[in-house]
Design a protein that fits this description.
alpha+beta; five-stranded antiparallel beta sheet; four-stranded mixed beta sheet; 9 helices; globular
């Protein structure tokens, strides 16, 4: 490994969209798959804790930093063969989506503007505006730390569910090297729109298709309106996007939520409800947060709720990770006390927890 790729006592905050967290004992920046696997093997053989960093858009790193090796994956690769796409893990995801739209291929256009790297998308099963990456992803090439081999996992073997995957379930086992997607040639049109807000913004019905570039532009505008397109000058984007996942409830849990909503807000109030299979119901974390009293801009310290979207917790420029966590706990506990639903954080925490 080239020495220029290694730094000691390296700041990690600049590598995250929160711009929070202390330093790592050692930071290795890998630009090839071989460098990635070599760095992982070196850490594992030495028994050194390892932190994988891609775009840093889903990380909450503790103020004390990371007592081990941080591996920044900076690999490049965008290979399109017909409708099949292979991306290196270090590729910028939003840029890759733009290139698929330029190539007139559908399937990920509604995932435009999501920050971070391609390698992170299967870990979280990234999704937005009616699309999840698991719907187009066919294979993940990963380094298996248990066996010391590079393996190829099929979509089914990835164990995808809502904002979850086998990689997230077993974070110490796999390091994603490449992702492969199957896109669609729909004659320059998008995939059928499935998100009501997107369809309304476009003036079409759910299930209809629109020109790819128009779909991407609309999604970017919707995201920007919520402070979810990165802008170094806008503190509303100094976040990890949605901090909490939308709760998925059993029928009994949903009935209890409805009862509590009626008690608190009146008999005409109703929480959003979307069928999620097996009798489960998905509701809106943003709605619960807002109705529990945590409105846009909430907070008086350096960490506050975004002025554009209640799901985003933000660093106003001088926050610490502990400031952020204190706000997150206040919101989580307030929603639980009001509605009996415990919100779960979406970003990965390092050295800290809620």
């Amino acid at each position: 490994m080239q020495e220029r790729h290694v730094a000691d006592n390296a700041p990690l905050a600049p590598l995250t969209t929160f711009r929070l967290g202390g330093p790592a004992n050692r930071l290795v920046t890998a630009t090839t798959d071989d460098e990635v696997t070599a760095a992982v093997r070196e850490a594992d053989e030495a028994g050194t804790p390892l932190l994988i960093i891609g775009g840093g858009s889903n990380l909450v790193i503790g103020d004390k930093g990371f007592d081990g090796t941080a591996l920044r994956i900076a690999t490049c690769g965008f290979a399109l063969d017909g409708t099949s796409l292979e991306l290196a893990a270090g590729e910028n995801w939003s840029d890759a989506v733009a290139r698929t739209v330029e190539a007139q291929l559908a399937g990920v256009e509604c995932l435009a503007g999501i920050p971070g790297s391609a390698g992170a998308t299967p870990v979280q099963n990234v999704g937005a505006y009616g699309q999840d990456v698991s719907e187009t992803l066919t294979e993940v090439v990963a380094y298996d730390r248990r066996t010391g081999e590079t393996v190829t996992l099929t979509n089914e073997e990835c164990g995808f569910s809502y904002r979850h995957s086998r990689f997230k379930q077993h974070p110490e086992r796999f390091v994603v090297l490449r992702v492969r997607l199957a896109l669609e040639d729909a004659g320059g049109l998008s995939a059928p729109l499935r998100y009501d807000q997107t369809a309304r913004a476009l003036g079409v019905g759910v299930g209809e298709r629109v020109p790819l570039a128009v779909a991407r532009k609309t999604v970017l505008a919707l995201r920007a309106g919520k402070g979810m397109v990165l802008d170094a000058d806008d503190h509303d984007t100094w976040s990890a996007g949605s901090f909490f996942t939308n709760p998925v409830l059993t029928e009994a849990e949903h009935a209890e939520l409805v009862r509590r909503v009626h008690d608190r807000l009146g008999p005409d109030a109703a929480p959003p409800a979307f069928p999620d299979g097996d009798g489960r119901v998905k509701t809106s974390a943003a709605w619960l947060i807002d109705r529990a009293g945590f409105t846009k801009g909430y907070g008086s310290g350096p960490a506050r709720i975004s002025t554009k979207h209640t799901l985003a917790l933000t660093n106003r420029g001088g926050a610490t990770t502990e400031d952020l966590l204190a706000l997150a706990r206040e919101v989580r506990d307030g929603v639980r006390d009001a509605f009996g639903v415990t919100l779960v954080n979406e970003p990965v925490t390092v050295g800290v927890s809620l």
